[in-house]
Amino acid sequence: xxxxxxxxxxxxxxxxxxxxxxxxxxxxxxxxxxxxxxxxxxxxxxxxxxxxxxxxxxxxxxxxxxxxxxxxxxxxxxxxxxxxxxxxxxxxxxxxxxxxxxxxxxxxxxxxxxxxxxxxxxxxxxxxxxxxxxxxxxxxxxxxxxxxxxxxxxxxxxxxxxxxxxxxxxxxxxxxxxxxxxxxxxxxxxxxxxxxxxxxxxxxxxxxxxxxxxxxxxxxxxxxxxxxxxxxxxxxxxxxxxxxxxxxxxxxxxxxxxxxxxxxxxxxxxxxxxxxxxxxxxxxxxxxxxxxxxxxxxxxxxxxxxxxxxxxxxxxxxxxxxxxxxxxxxxxxxxxxxxxxxxxxxxxxxxxxxxxxxxxxxxxxxxxxx
Length: 370
Hints:
Layout: E1 2-10, E2 15-24, E3 27-31, E4 38-46, E5 48-53, E6 55-56, E7 59-60, H1 67-78, E8 82-90, H2 94-109, E9 117-121, H3 143-149, E10 156-161, H4 168-176, E11 179-183, H5 190-198, E12 203-204, H6 220-227, E13 232-235, H7 244-253, E14 259-261, E15 275-277, E16 283-287, E17 290-293, H8 305-316, H9 320-327, H10 329-335, E18 351-354, E19 360-365, E20 368-369
Parallel strand pairs: 1-4, 5-8, 8-9, 9-10, 10-11, 11-12, 12-13, 13-14
Antiparallel strand pairs: 1-2, 2-3, 4-18, 6-7, 15-16, 16-17, 18-19, 19-20
């Protein structure tokens, strides 16, 4: 057991000063003062949880489907406060999907710190809203993919799909397989999107981006996402994917607790790399904090979760407490992680020490510095 002394502590609900807590077998408990405590200077907050991470630290899941790749990605994001991530494989061949599933199963079996499961973003997407995804691999759902999605050794499973191209019955089947179904890269209308929600979909992948817009006569996917109280929306707050006023409107409109920060991070996060190889002979080029494919589209981001929190506070005028919940508690609730996202007795001791400007000083998973 280790005892820590937090100068300040955010439980997920309130800010406390000068508090001691113990970590025993990875479990957090508030405790009495101790002379042997490890001193944590700064604000201790619940670890960030990111449901959409394509890469980091130079590693790219689509380029290398190994447990070591997942370890490298998780380690890179740990530097920025992410204590749990959903490694994300974007649209690719079914063989690559199977290899990614094998790598995830091995990582889960090895208890690689920070790896929760796998997010398949595609391949059952809409061509008009494919974004930077490779058209040659976009396809209907088949038994080959269902065999992967039905695996029970992958931790948390998540699939982003376009409901106009996947039947409601197949969405229900995915949910029965234990898959979190998220709606994204879709040109569906309001009615089709609502049918997908009724079939069990409960998420929207990077709200506003690569989805049919809200209009006066057709609310589209955006309208359905904002209207539905039982689903969660991921939001990329990097200043490029979503206009600040659109993001503010979504946070104001959507049921509280249902907007979560995501990064859609790519390999350059945590590096000085300015480009990396992509599909179809393309490259992704970094310009400042923006990534574009050589064919022009935004191609993920170089955003990390600590930056997403800072941006939410500084550009969206959201309180620090709510911004932190958007990075920890709300994604934990979306993923069904009922022991993460808060620092209260009996919860997982995944925490981050922030300085006064919300930059990361230290990250701990299960009480161990990473």
